[in-house]
Amino acid sequence: MKKNRITTLLEGEKKLLIAYYMPEYPVEGATLPVLEALQENGADIIELGIPFSDPVGDGPVIQDAAQTAIRNGVTVKHLLELVQKARAGEGCRKVTAPILLMGYCNPLIAYGGDCFLHDAADAGVDGLLLPDLPPEEAEDFLERAKSFGLTVVFLISPVTPPERIEMIDALSTDFSYCLAVNATTGTSKLAGAEGDQAVEEYLKRVRAHTRKKFVVGFGIRDKARVEQMWRFADGAVVGSALLQHLAGAASPAETSRLAGEFWRSLR
User: Fold this and answer.
1) What CA dihedral angle connects 226, 252, 76 and 44, to 10 degrees?
2) CA within 20 to 30 Å of 90's CA: 140, 145, 178, 207, which one?
3) Is 257 buried (19+), middle (13-18) or exposed (0-12) by CB count in 10 A?
């Protein structure tokens, strides 16, 4: 597999701060300005949601954002067009940060498997995170994705046994994604000393059974929590808190300003 932006980034030792954003949220036309603002304010990887009507891993904030994105015209095709524009600097400063698409299998199957992989790579996508793709059934998809130069990321949860952590670590192309808690996105379950201790023990267990890097997401809302995750993992993902900060924006320019403001607060 040829190196993509994610592979190159992970060769360094920098702790990563990864942004999750739902395209065209909360207003149409916001995507390109937001991508620019996130990159300019220190997002190491940008994770773009593929809106779907039945997002089993997402909490109310991302579910609502997905419905807004759908109303604002986001389809898989449109999303890939936005990535292509971002890479070309059309409508924003050129986006060079790695872009990871997070979504569910149904829209990709409807688009056409190899057609999607080809078009995603051609648009400038670097990788994919598909929560409902079982690792045990992913071998063919994984090899096809690699042939297009795409990283594939698999999920680890607090109840994943050691032997399965090792299997997921081996399958994930460059890194794995750890759910901080057994919950949907945006959860408040991380609050409190008891939760902190449980997460610390869990991430130490993941470290003991992985060779590749791993990042942590779900419920990470502020700088203090980001720094806590950096102590035990290679990166932290912030999504629902970003979307909540953008929810009241009335224009693409305001959305971009708020995105930059929030992202700076995490650094």
Assistant:
1) -30
2) 145
3) middle
Tokens read off for 98: 């790695």
Rounded Cα distance, 167 and 171, in Å: 6
Q: Give me the tens of pLDDT residue by residue for the chain, a chain 267 residues long.
A: 778 999 999 999 999 999 999 999 999 999 999 999 999 999 999 999 999 988 776 789 999 999 999 999 999 999 999 999 999 999 999 999 999 999 999 999 999 989 999 999 999 999 999 999 999 999 999 999 999 999 999 999 999 999 999 999 999 999 999 998 765 554 455 555 567 889 999 999 999 999 999 999 998 999 999 999 999 999 999 999 999 999 999 999 999 999 999 999 998
Taking the C-alpha atoms of residue 207 and residue 13, their distance in angstroms, rounded to an integer, is 15
Q: Could you tell me the pTM of the whole model?
A: 0.94
Question: How far apart, in whole angstroms, are the C-alpha atoms of residue 233 and residue 176?
Answer: 10
Q: Which residues contact 71 (CB under 8 A, 6 or more apart)?
A: none
> Active-site residues: which are they?
47, 58
